[in-house]
Amino acid sequence: MPSLRLALAQVGTTVGDLAANAARVRRAAAEAAAAGADLLVLPELALTGYPVEDLALRRSFVDASRAALDQLAADLAADGLGELPVLVGYVDRVEGPLAEGVGAAGRGQREGGDASAPPHGLQREGGRRDGGGTGVPKGLPQNCAGLLHRGARVGRYAKHHLPNYGVFDEFRIFVPGRDLLVARVRGVDVAVAICEDLWQEGGPVAAAHDADAELLVVLNASPYERSKDDTRLELCRRRAGEARAVLAYVNTVGGQDDLVFDGGSLVVAADGQVLARGEAFVEQLVVVDLDLPEGSASPADVPGVDRVVVGEEPAPHREPVPAPVAEPLGEMAELWAALVLGLRDYVRKNGFTQVLFGLSGGVDSAVCAALAVDALGPGGLVGVSMPSGYSTAHSRSDADDLAGRLGIDYRTHPIAPMVDAFLENVPMSGVAEENLQARVRGTLLMGISNSEGQLVLTTSNKSELSVGYSTIYGDSVGGFAPLKDVAKTDVWRLARWRNEDARARGEREPIPEASITKAPSAELRPDQTDQDSLPEYDVLDALLEDYVVRAMGRSELLEAGHDPEDVRRVVGLVDRAEWKRRQGAPGPKTTPVSFGRDRRLPVTTHWREEDE
Ligand SMILES: Nc1ncnc2c1ncn2[C@@H]1O[C@H](COP(=O)(O)OP(=O)(O)OC[C@H]2O[C@@H]([n+]3cccc(C(=O)O)c3)[C@H](O)[C@@H]2O)[C@@H](O)[C@H]1O
Ligand SMILES: Nc1ncnc2c1ncn2[C@@H]1O[C@H](COP(=O)(O)OP(=O)(O)OP(=O)(O)O)[C@@H](O)[C@H]1O
Ligand SMILES: NC(=O)CC[C@H](N)C(=O)O
């Protein structure tokens, strides 16, 4: 049986930085060649970064992606790596009229949809149908994998299934491919698929089986959600069984706006055995030796299958290398790592070195501070205590304690004189006065940020964002929201986990215990607590999970056992806060339904669940 040494490079890339991404591919290729790999596979759209969104609709961008791929092929050869076949994701355009392809593939995500119909975004760009012919007009963008060998692109695969649900919009910007690419490497037939292709029935997986491929490699940019690694593993096992082939899944790593990609690449045998597993949230070259049957001398001529031969020569005898099989992280460790990576990459990729926000002594700002220090180091955070006339003594002492533990740049700016000056000029009371304090804080933070160049973070969590429990243009100020998709009860769990983890490592706990145990309060009026306005957070979060994530209607919520008065109140708050969320900062997606592209609701609507 020929052996194939496969290298999967789970790398971090940056959207639009084609030169840096190409350089990253070259480094991975050098590492893979040094490890004796016969084939290197990189993630989906590794050359352009993912997701490219409407950049795909710019001719200049697609041209640059194609040119970068050609240049990469030449550079790899110049690096002496031309003999190593490299599969890498990039944006290409339709090269010629597309033949009717394999199985159900190429139908996109619209049920019964017409695969030749250009997506909406493409229509905007001036793309058009080709007058009812079977093909798609040349020149429209496609999400592709290019196979590079000996200085040239020798094969190309265009993604069949273009996700357009949840956070994905690929049907809007790409046209689906229909053909399958099967490359013969070291005598082994290797089929190629891209991310969503794996999640849909039929298509490339079924075609890989029909084409007698022994290995199915899948290039992915699959965003993190809690426990999604378990879902992916089960999916890979099922698809490997269906294809009766080894399945190699390589995922990208890093943060991109509101998404975090978690790596965790996998190699799974047809019987479901895990042959290799990459670490989560870190770049890694996963090298695995596979014993695979030789491809047939006269392979089946399956319509829609492009076969390319990059090597019939069997691999030389070599000592097998043990493949890495990383242990999955625990629930809170995984979530923490996702938030740290999402924050770090947002800050750095947008050219900042420091972040800035208010430290209130409460748990949200404390957790944000610990995350920021883990992401950027103590020098990466400026914390500001901004006591008002209503602030408790402990809000200051707990913030002081936090800052001391973290060793950060910490400043105090009392806001009472500014609030008083405002009130003398513009009298206000009640909620207006409460919100003024939050707005003075927001103005102060933006002033420091404008002067010194930090990025302001907003500390709001998902529970508050759900019910609109924040002051617009006040404490909602900021460019990035690390806890945007973390419910308040999980903020407390994270705080406890981070302290326990520190204890286990013999380090000082970063978060003061008092910040975790105190009753949550906005401290905008005397003796205020969050529960004056909201149900207890465990009750609220359970209800929000059912209403926001599971999208239950009023009667389903009541059937699920939620209190009718809580349902009436919370559903109304959530619905009425849509306009606030629409203006909110991005933050890392961690759940199946985050606020933003994942959950799109009209701001102006007369639909009310409570009226049902
Ligand atoms: N549909 C719509 N489209 C566009 N704008 C709309 C709007 N509805 C209201 N507005 C505008 O929004 C204003 C009301 O919103 P906003 O000014 O935010 O004020 P509002 O939502 O009424 O009050 C903020 C609430 O959040 C609480 N809070 C504040 C700060 C921190 C925390 C915390 O614990 O973290 C909690 C505070 O105690 C208060 O209960 C209106 O005056 C109006 O200008
Ligand atoms: N006294 C303060 N000094 C500095 N920042 C403050 C102060 N009060 C509020 N903030 C800022 O506004 C955010 C909203 O905090 P608030 O106290 O209103 O409620 P919270 O959502 O429970 O947050 P936390 O748990 O951090 O207290 C805080 O996270 C903090 O960034
Ligand atoms: N890039 C993609 O096609 C991602 C879609 C896929 N269902 C995932 O989340 O993994």
UniProtKB/TrEMBL annotation:
The keyword Nucleotide-binding applies. Pathway: Cofactor biosynthesis; NAD(+) biosynthesis; NAD(+) from deamido-NAD(+) (L-Gln route): step 1/1. Residues 4-292 form the CN hydrolase domain. ATP binds at residues 358-365, 459. Residues 122-131, 502-511, 596-612 have a biased composition (Basic and acidic residues). Residues 102-139, 502-533, 581-612 are annotated as: Disordered. It comes from the Bacteria. SUPFAM superfamilies: Adenine nucleotide alpha hydrolases-like (SSF52402), Carbon-nitrogen hydrolase (SSF56317). The active site is at 44 (proton acceptor), 159 (for glutaminase activity), 195 (nucleophile). It catalyses: deamido-NAD(+) + L-glutamine + ATP + H2O = L-glutamate + AMP + diphosphate + NAD(+) + H(+). Deamido-NAD(+) binds at residues 435, 464, 580. L-glutamine binds at residues 165, 222, 228. Coiled coil: none annotated. Its EC number is 6.3.5.1. Keywords: ATP-binding, Ligase, NAD, Nucleotide-binding. GO terms for molecular function: NAD+ synthase (glutamine-hydrolyzing) activity. In the C-terminal section; belongs to the NAD synthetase family. Catalyzes the ATP-dependent amidation of deamido-NAD to form NAD. Uses L-glutamine as a nitrogen source. This is Glutamine-dependent NAD(+) synthetase. It comes from Pseudokineococcus basanitobsidens.
